[in-house]
Write a structure and sequence with these properties.
globular; 180 residues; Jelly Rolls; alpha+beta; three-stranded antiparallel sheet; five-stranded antiparallel sheet
């Protein structure tokens, strides 16, 4: 386990925790704020190339949504937190769509998926170039995620959102005696 505490501007003191197993390759990273947080949502209109540099802190419990493109990533069992910028978030979506596109090339019956992926990759590129405005949303039931920009809007999550959002991975607890 590696634990590192530091100060992120506008986010405050946080602890980055990374746990890993040398034997099986399992790895989990998350960002935990020093002070308690309430479940919350952040959103920002991404309408220019300058916004690609806006900082994002995404915890392992955060759902990321870009409705205009039909993109959503929920936290899963191996979800990890990260600090990036809006361009980095778009790159992560682009990598996932590119993987699906490459897999569809091996099957001639996947022509429709190839076209959808190609169109989506073009749209992500337009967003990166500031030519297609979208709204980036972070929904975090643990309250650890944030968009670090004065133009970002924060709000509390609704009861319905709290009931339906996934929380992400649970960190396993090991007994040290069992590992020896």
């Amino acid at each position: 386990m590696i634990v590192h505490s530091s100060e992120i501007p506008y986010f405050g003191e946080h602890t980055q925790m990374t746990m890993m197993c040398d034997k099986c390759g399992w790895r989990h990273t998350d960002f935990i704020p020093a002070e308690g947080k309430k479940p919350g949502a952040w959103e920002m209109n991404v309408d220019s190339i300058e916004k690609m540099n806006v900082r994002i802190v995404r915890s392992s419990s955060c759902t990321v949504i870009i409705e205009e493109l039909g993109l959503e990533v929920e936290p899963g069992g191996s979800s990890t937190g990260y600090i990036s910028n809006i361009e980095g978030v778009l790159n992560r979506f682009e990598d996932a769509v590119s993987l699906i596109y490459r897999q569809s090339l091996t099957d001639s019956t996947e022509r429709e998926n190839q076209e959808k992926c190609s169109q989506l990759l073009s749209e992500i590129n337009l967003v990166k170039n500031g030519e297609l405005p979208v709204k980036l949303q972070l929904l975090d039931p643990m309250g650890h995620s944030q968009i670090l920009d004065a133009l970002a809007i924060s709000r509390e999550l609704s009861t319905n959102e709290l009931d339906t959002l996934r929380v992400g991975p649970t960190v396993p607890v090991f007994d040290a005696d069992d590992l020896i």
